[in-house]
Amino acid sequence: xxxxxxxxxxxxxxxxxxxxxxxxxxxxxxxxxxxxxxxxxxxxxxxxxxxxxxxxxxxxxxxxxxxxxxxxxxxxxxxxxxxxxxxxxxxxxxxxxxxxxxxxxxxxxxxxxxxxxxxxxxxxxxxxxxxxxxxxxxxxxxxxxxxxxxxxxxxxxxxxxxxxxxxxxxxxxxxxxxxxxxxxxxxxxxxxxxxxxxxxxxxxxxxxxxxxxxxxxxxxxxxxxxxxxxxxxxxxxxxxxxxxxxxxxxxxxxxxx
Length: 257
Fold this sequence. Notes:
The protein is mostly beta strands. Helices cover 2% and strands 45% of the residues. Strand 22 and strand 23 (249-251) form a beta hairpin. The termini are far apart.
C-alpha cells in the first residue's frame, strides 16, 4: 500500500503463499528476484486454491512487472488463470521475465490490452483443471487486445494451445509475435482467429498440429521456422500469408484491389 501511495518501485524476493487474488491497480513497478524453480526459486508466488493468481486492472498500466513466477499448488482443484491483464486498453504496460506454470486454466490470460509489451514469458504445464492455453488473448464484449508486441515466448506442455490469439470482443488484431517456441501442447502450438496478426515461431511435437489460422483469421502473416509432421500451417481463414521454412512453402494469396 505504501509503494502504491508514493508510486515507487516494489522489490520482492523469495517465496510467497497467496490464498486470494492479488489485484494490481496502481503505478507501482513490481521487480522480482528472477523466475526459477527448485533449487533456485528467485521470486515465486505460490497459489493455493481456485482463483486468479494476479489480476492487473486499470490503473496498473504504464508500469513494468518483471522477474517472478506464478506457480499453482492446487492441482486439479484449480480451474482458474495464473494472471489476467485487463487494463482498459491504455498503452504502456510491460511484462518481462515472467513464468506461469501449472495453472488450472490459462497461464496468462490477456483480456483487455493495447500497444503493450510482453517479453521473455514462459507458460508451461497449464490447463490442469480444464483445457487451458499457455498464453491466451481472449477479449469479450467491448474489450480488445490489439497492437501488442510479444518477444521470446516459451509455451510448452499446455492442455490447450501454446499461444492462442482467440478473437472475440472488439478484436484480437495487429499483434506482433517475434520469436519463441510452442512445443508439446495438446492442441495446436499457435492459433490465430482474427485480423492482421504477425507471428514468427518455432513449433515441435504439438499433438493437433503446428499453426492453425482459424475461420476468422484474415491477412495474417506467419513465419514457421520448424514443425512436426507433414503440415506446417492449417489455413481455414481468408487471404493469409505464410512461409513454412522447414518445408520451403510460401503461400501468397491473390488480393484484388
